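Changelog excerpt

This revision adds worked examples to the README so contributors can see how folded entries look when concatenated. The first example is reproduced verbatim below.
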Amino acid sequence: MNNKVNNVLIKQWLEDFDPENSDIDDQSDDGDIENLFNINADVLENNNFLENIFNETELFEVQNIEFEDAYDNNDDEVQNVPGPSTQTSRSKKVIRDWKFEKNNFVASDVTWKSFLPNPPLEDYTPFQYFKLFFSDEMFDLIHVESNKYAMQKNGSVPNISYLEIRQYIGILVYMGVVKMPASRVYWSNNCRFNRIADVISRNTFYTISRYFHVEDNAIAKSPNSVGYDKLHKVRPLLNILQINMHDTPPEERHSVDEQMIAFKRRSHLKQYMRNKPHKWGFKVFTRAGASGIMYDFEIYQ
């Protein structure tokens, strides 16, 4: 719509324009105009027209080179002039081109080259199976370090005996099978559990729990030191347990997988895995046999 209005106004101005009454002086010469057309005609008829253009282009390039040299000589004068920013607001995404190659499948050698152990002459009792992994060395470690920690804490030894340590570990196993709301309920009058309450007193159980230790605090590393182990509080016990597992004669078929030790209390090692039956707890990588026996493990930290 605006273009049509402008065209009408321009046409009206041209019709109303009177050269005789114009205030603009006629400074052009008709002869100059004719000479201009004659020059253009001569250039177009000249066979060397394109060659002249190329020559002029070469001259222009030479002049540019001389100008650049002169500009380079004055770098000291213009080096402080800020240039345009070349940084982009967003980094470029690297696109990787993956190529797949077809190769012949080479199967690994899975031939069983060891020997299977002979079955025991008699069936092991649950306690004998337990002693295969939880050896007497572990009971000795707990007995020594617990009394040492009690001495460091209070200045007096609570006289925790080796037998009481063994009874304490057995009670923990029982509590994992027969569960009650709180540990004191096993000794209560209404819900007394004789298999635990008749072994040791409630005060002895709580005393051992208070001073239970497997590592000497005097040699423990600080969290900021090199080689700090988050599991240093139980590492001596874990090392003995792994040695006992390695000494167990292996079977033919093994599997490596992860397991969850259920735990919901406060711990910096606690993990959450929503697809596991026990979603909260300690994640452990294990190597177990088809029989269900664990031969090695590593706690994730």
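The second example, added in the same revision:
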Amino acid sequence: MLLHHILSLSLSPLALLPFTLSAPLDSQSPLSSSTDVQPTSRVPSRYESTILGRRLLALSSTGVISSIFPSSNQSQATPWTPPPTSVSSLSISLPDYLADCDSPSVGNPTLLFLDPSTSSRNSRVLPDQDPGHPNNISLSLSWWDAYPLLTGHRPWAPADLPRLSMIGYLEEMSIREAEETGVVACYLRRHPDARLWLPGDEHAAHGGRWVRLVVREVYWMGGFGDRHWIGWFDREEWNAVREAEWGAVRLPGERD
């Protein structure tokens, strides 16, 4: 199956030239002499990779949230079983829903945190914590699950598929703000089942809150380092990418 391994970018004001990845990502071919870098091939630049990262965010509906348990002397009084003291100050990673719903989007994903959620409880600012320095939280995305769904076969090497981790803090939105800015409608288009546990719904099983992850740093692994960019993105570049840019590129396995 022929899938795109050429990503053509026509970007303004940078006026980037079209570039070709140095190995056939779409076919996930094993490394061999046939995949040597060609004279016209090059590793994508940081900004080109940033555009791919923003596309990965825009197309993602789930990710892995990493948060840190409070220290044992900071446990919050909740109706749910508290974590064991042995995990105090340790991190935990759990999958969750997400959607890129800010308009215009600057790369800060929307989350719906239910009160019993470990990630939600760990992310709250505690009474003796400076509210100006909220807990850091990270959200990791990968293209590993999407690739086989798009192509009908498993990748030869998932390690050669893109993934990223966004690190930042949570900013709570009121229900009114989330409704008036279109966040609720956007989120439900991606997760229609979430209608059963919307914040403010008296029939919901649990209370919840709308939050956005304000992204401060992004670490990107485009794949194997000889053909992809790997490293930290520039935050201003991450925020500046527009839909016209990420809409013009394709991740491995995508069709036009």
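Reviewer comment on example two: The domain at 6-26+39-70+89-123+134-246 is CATH 2.30.110.10 (Pnp Oxidase; Chain A). The longest helix spans residues 46-59.
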